[in-house]
Amino acid sequence: MTVIEVVSGDITRERVDAIVTAANESLLGGGGVDGAIHRAAGPRLAEAGGAIGPCPPGEAVATPAFDLDPPVRHVIHTVGPVWEGGNHGEAEVLASCYRRCLEIADQIGARSLAFPAIATGVYGFPPDQAARIAVSTLRSTPSEVERIRLVAFDEQTRDLLNAAL
């Protein structure tokens, strides 16, 4: 059974097999959590992303973790939906992000995984809805991942994730 926990902090400092980044379609790096992960992993992360991109919303791909500290061995890049009011399949695309990340984690043998709050930054997904989708999707998706850490960058996100959990 997968254990899901909510923590506050910097996702690049998590002691897990793989971390998820909320990427843009190019996989070349961006702002927010994606920018932080790219800075911590070094320039080879963007090179690797560019070689396998683009990645459509709702999908996920993995690269090595490059300069991230062990035990992190992989970065899983997923592209969340841009919020357009909620009537354009955004919830389904966001749920797909979490499902696909778990599938990729299983493929690469990751048993521990850290997620940020996908699509809640510049993509504008309402954080309360995103927290509920994240938790319900992670709970309902079969996986070999043993430990999932939902990493909140701020107190509001942490509280919303805890409430959904």
TrEMBL record:
Keywords of the record: Hydrolase
Keyword Hydrolase: yes
Listed InterPro entries: Macro_dom, Macro_dom-like
Sequence ranges assigned to domain Macro in this UniProt record: 1-165
EC number: 3.1.1.106
Pfam families the record matches: Macro
Domain of life: Bacteria
Transmembrane segments: none
Gene3D superfamilies: Leucine Aminopeptidase, subunit E, domain 1
GO molecular function, one term: O-acetyl-ADP-ribose deacetylase activity
NCBIfam families noted in UniProt: PRK00431.1-6
Protein name (record): O-acetyl-ADP-ribose deacetylase
Record organism: Plantactinospora sonchi
